[in-house]
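Researcher: Re-running this chain for the archive, since the previous output was lost when a drive failed. Same request as before.
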Amino acid sequence: MTKCSRVLLRIQEEKGFNGLVFNCIDKALKSLGESVAMSFFYQIEKNFHFPREEFVARPLEFIKCLEEFLGVAGSKIIERLIVQEIRSTFDIPTSSSNATLEGTIREAKKNFLTR
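Model: Regenerated structure tokens:
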């Protein structure tokens, strides 16, 4: 396999991973209701100029937007829902020490790339 082929394969894997994690975010938010999820996405994109395509790549900024939008307590609840969904999708044990969105995404990526 050439170096170029490996790079292209890595890019495809990254897109696939990001799509799966975004689906976890979407599913977690939709557990609160379809209109709630749509409202979150709209408000974050409109008020914070933070496109949903970047949520996975920039989880700390995503959480900061949620904190500004919902307050710290509210954002922690949403973060917990998202983390649970990612753990379920990527078979990460709940005993894992990663309780943050950023740490859980990192662990999910490791699991995804080694499967």
